[in-house]
Amino acid sequence: MDIIEQARIKVREWTDAHKQCVLYDDASAVLLDVASGKNLPLPWPTVVAFEEKVHPETNDIYLVVFFENGNQIALVEPGGVAFTPSTANSGPVENLPPAVCLRDFLTLKQRFDHYLYDHPNDPPPRETLDMLMIGIATLDGARAIGFEVGDLEKELEKSLEASAGSLAGSSASVTTRTKRNAPRLLISLH
Question: 72 Cβ partners below 8 Å, 6+ apart?
């Protein structure tokens, strides 16, 4: 049995045991990240390795799949499909974890919106900008492994446009631009 077939079996076993996090359709080779509702096609011919690991804090088993282009994904509980964030558009980000998932983005977006909409007269705390930068790096990382995240980028842009005045009070400015037909968010500190 080759490495690709072994990896497919492990992905099926892991997802069968963790349906609350990730679903897998073997016929179409697509993972469904339950928290986000997003599909991730798995390019099986490009798989070069996989590893089962034990989380040092929870002792839960998670599965890492490595691809020939250097990308990797991890199937983790409770996060779902985890991946490396990309700082290509955000630049260096303080406190950026080495692995993130779309569930993390959704949580950060909810917290960002809480400061924006539930406390409109209060200047947002510094952590709001940090959350925003982590969110951008998360979406860029998700796109890099094959998730379609254009709708999530638009949601974040909407929040950014609504918060432009609040963030300006925090010595930050927000602009958007388009690169390769994908919306990108830029923030610069003053």
Answer: 64, 65, 66, 83, 84
Residues 126-182 have pLDDT tens digits of 888 888 899 999 999 999 999 999 999 999 998 888 776 555 554 444 443 333 333
Smallest CA-to-CA distance from 138 within 36, 29, 23, 22 is with: 36
Closest listed residue to residue 166, CA positions, set 152, 187, 183, 184: 187
End-to-end Cα, the chain, rounded Å: 57
pTM (2 d.p.): 0.83
Q: Are 185 and 89 in contact (CB under 8 A)?
A: yes
Structure tokens at 45: 């011919």
Which residues touch 73 (CB under 8 Å, ≥6 apart)? 40, 64, 65, 81, 82, 83, 145
Cβ neighbours of 178 (radius 10 Å): 8
Tokens of 143: 């796109």
Q: Give the 3-state secondary structure percentages of the chain, helix then strand then coil, rounded to 5.
A: 40, 30, 35
Domain boundaries, the chain: 3-83, 100-189
- In this structure, what token pair is assigned to residue 30? 């697509």
The yes/no answer on whether domain 3-83 falls in CATH 2.30.29 is yes
